[in-house]
Amino acid sequence: MGFKITKDMSFVEVMKILPQSVEIFRVYNLDCSDCQLAEYENLEQGCHIHGVDVEALLEDLNRALS
């Protein structure tokens, strides 16, 4: 099994690894590319704050990564 995006990764880290994640975040109403906290906040924290299912987001991100 290869590399996977995990919930403890920061939004910026994910955007660097997977540039198309910006579009996936938008589907979940997460405007991470414009957020000042994107460098410090991990996916789990951001999803919790915005009421997003982190597991569903991870599934979509990792599907795009493969």
Please give a handful of descriptors for the protein shown.
4 helices, mainly alpha, 66 residues
Describe the structure.
The chain is mainly α and 66 residues long. The chain has one domain (11-65): SP0561-like (Orthogonal Bundle), CATH 1.10.3910.10. It contains 4 helices and no strands. The chain has helices at 11-17, 21-27, 43-50, 54-65. It starts with 10 loop residues before the first helix and ends with a helix. The model has no long low-confidence stretch (mean pLDDT 90).
Mind summarizing the main beta sheet? none
Q: Find the structural class using helix and strand composition.
A: mainly alpha
Helix fraction, binned, reads 40-55%
Cα gyration radius (Å):
10 Å
Summarize the structure.
The protein is mainly alpha-helical and 66 residues long. The protein contains four helices and no strands. The chain has helices spanning 11-17, 21-27, 43-50, 54-65.
Write the layout of secondary structure elements.
Blueprint: H1 11-17, H2 21-27, H3 43-50, H4 54-65
